[in-house]
Amino acid sequence: MTQRVVSRNKKAFHDYHIEDTLEAGIVLTGPEAKSLRAGRANLMDGYAQVQGGEVFLYNVHISPYEYATHNPSDPLRVRKLLLHQREIRKLIGKLHEKGIALIPLKIYFIENGKAKVELGLARGKKLYDKRAALKERQSDREVERALRHRRE
């Protein structure tokens, strides 16, 4: 199944350990969908919460569509996510653990033109975890560089 990625939350993988991911539909207005197709979204400070048996997405910025004829909606409005009831019950159980957050990892379109958001169950990294990951990435780059020079 092909997907066209609109926006990724690269910072999420730096700040969190992603323990599990799930796909959810997203309720959009017409101009928001057009703006997403133009690639105008920002997931940086976004998060999701379960309220009243439903899941909502907060702080995801979808820029107003400039050619919309009616009043544009708020770019940071709360958007409802579409999940099965059993998935929501599973999420509620996991979110009660200490230190677990639900954050959007990417927004994309699937083949039939529907917008989806990939959510990650995330646990925050400590500063020393971030440093260790950075050192590991640098050492991997050095090894790759050395191998590339050896082949030449």
Can you give a write-up of this model?
By secondary structure, this protein is of the alpha+beta class. It has one domain: Small Protein B, Chain: A (Beta Barrel). Helices cover about 35% and strands about 35% of the residues. The strands form 2 sheets. The protein has a 7-stranded antiparallel beta sheet with strand order 1-8-9-2-7-5-4. Strands 3-6 form a two-stranded antiparallel ribbon. The N and C termini lie far apart (about 40 Å).
Tell me the strand order in the biggest sheet: 1-8-9-2-7-5-4
Report the principal-axis shape: globular
- Round the Cα radius of gyration to an integer and report it: 18 Å
Q: Name the CATH architecture.
A: Beta Barrel
Q: What fraction, in percent, of the residue positions are helical?
A: 25-40%
- CATH class group: Mainly Beta
The CATH topology is Small Protein B, Chain: A
State the distance separating the first and last CA atoms.
38 Å
- Which whole number gives the mean pLDDT? 86
> What string, H for helix and E for strand, traces the elements in order?
EHEHEEEEEHEEH
Q: State the helix count.
A: 4
Number of domains: 1
Helix/strand class: alpha+beta
Main β-sheet: number of strands, strand sense, barrel status? 7 strands, antiparallel
Relative strand content: 35-45%
State the total count of DSSP E strands.
Answer: 9
Regions with pLDDT < 50 over 5+ consecutive residues?
A: none
**CATH superfamily heading:** Small protein B
